[in-house]
Amino acid sequence: MRVVVTRRIDSDTINMLKEHADVTTWDSDLPPSREELIRLLGDADGALTLLTDRIDAELLDATPGLRAVSNLAVGYDNIDVEACTKRLVAACTTPDVLTRTTAEFTVALMFAVARQIVPAAIAAREGEWLTWYPFRFLGRDLEGATLGVVGLGRIGATVATLMQGFGMRVIYADERSESTEFESATVTDLLRRADVVTLHVPLTPETRLMIDDEALASMKPDALLINTARGGVIDTDALVRALERGRLGGVGLDVTDPEPLPVDHPLYGYERVTIVPHIASATSVTRHRMSSLAAQNLIAVLTGGDPPHCLNPEVLANA
Ligand code: GLV
Question: Does the predicted model carry a pTM greater than 0.90?
Answer without folding.
Answer: yes
